[in-house]
Amino acid sequence: MSQILLPYGKSHVILEIADDLTPQIIMPPISSTAVDAHEKIVDSIKHPTGKFLWQQIKPTGRVAIAINDKTRPVPNNLMIPPLLEKLASIGFTPEQITFFIATGTHTPMRSDEFSLLLPSEIISRYRIVSHDCDDSANLEFLGTTSRKTPVWINAEFYHSDLKILVGNIEPHHFMGYSGGAKTAGIGLTGRQTINQNHAMLVEPNATFAIYEENPTRQDLEEIGDLIRIHGVLNVVMNPSRQIMYSLFGSAREVMIAGIPFAREICQTKIDQGDFDLVIASPGGYPKDINLYQSQKGLSHAASITRDGGCVILVAQCAEGVGSNSYEAFMEGITSPDEVFIKMKNDGFKVGPHKALQFAREQKRIRIIIVSDIEKKRIERLLLESGENLETAFKKALISLPPNPRIAIMPKATNTIPQL
């Protein structure tokens, strides 16, 4: 028997597999030796990519720094101090700077949660605001994109004199890649904006690792243009969440420069796809903080699973499903086909869109969830509960042919399989 460790929350679970099954372990490429992260970040801020020029920045007015919420593993503790040092060297004071937590449609973060994102010395000195996509009183309409997305943005952020985003570039299951304008273009916009943009996820090129031809991503770039983002600080991390690259500059240029680095770190060659069974972990916390986030790892695993095959998604989901609207949408639904019908009748909405993403895979493959979510709650979402990894594995094997082809993806969300 061989033992396989899979990330599960902040720990791991172990799967014992008979030696004759010989699973293929699919991981991101082994990254080169970790670099001096501080040096990389400072250097990128000092030498911006694209049109951004520090020489044009005057220490007047208000500075807005947008950061991701707790569902994103961005190393703010390493990235933000050098950025604040640069702003201080220009002459900005803490009183001029506000941090905006980019929550998108997620629940706004409470003040007692800010320590999950920022060091205490920053929390004590700077004003911090958590965005609410439904707070219409603080949303301003900027116009529409060429794809007819109405752009509603956090008004206070928009009217700041210097707008900087902090985030990371990594694969995204329908946006192609995270990073760039996304922190504000999705994270600080209104629900109507996010719904309209995300409705394009049904289009063929709205998938991971596609940038220029991706409709959701290119719509986002237009949203970013309307917001008039000044600068973006993005890092690219390896699977161990060590910073390998850092870029600072204008939003589009940072993406164009950073995507090749993300591909280098996340894209891995496989001889063939069409596995009978893929056992996938999103990569542990916070990638598996809830089912809503964990589905992103499922997308990568499903892409190499044959029709009629099975994916076991191993995700702790310490915060449950992660979307009340997704659970409400699924009430009374009895089949994947009904998901498509209801979505068509009700119109596309973020939250319920997770039902669409799961249903699209369920039409083709079997999905078993191993998590801390109670069995009945999983089954109400039309998903199969594995109770534990050993049980799920045994259940999957029963329905598979002799000598099944098995793949294991311990870091599925950050692994792009390439044939």
What does this structure look like?
With 419 residues, the chain is an alpha/beta fold. The chain folds into two domains: 2-26 and 270-418, 2-enoyl-CoA Hydratase, Chain A, domain 1 (Alpha-Beta Complex), CATH 3.90.226.30; 37-266, Rossmann fold, CATH 3.40.50.11440. The protein contains 14 helices and 20 strands. The chain has helices at 37-46, 76-90, 120-123, 155-158, 182-185, 191-198, 215-227, 251-266, 291-302, 324-329, 336-346, 353-362, 375-380, 389-398, and strands at 2-8, 11-17, 24-25, 63-68, 97-102, 127-130, 139-144, 150-154, 162-168, 171-172, 176-177, 231-237, 243-249, 267-269, 275-280, 305-314, 366-370, 384-385, 406-409, 416-418. The strands form six sheets. A six-stranded parallel beta sheet has the order 3-19-15-16-17-18, with helices on both faces. A six-stranded mixed beta sheet has the order 6-5-4-9-12-13, sandwiched between helices. A hairpin with a 5-residue loop joins β12 (231-237) and β13. α1 packs parallel to α2 (76-90), α9 runs parallel beside α12 and α11 runs antiparallel to α12 (353-362). The longest helix is centred in the middle third of the chain and has 16 residues, at 251-266. It is globular, with a radius of gyration of 21 Å.
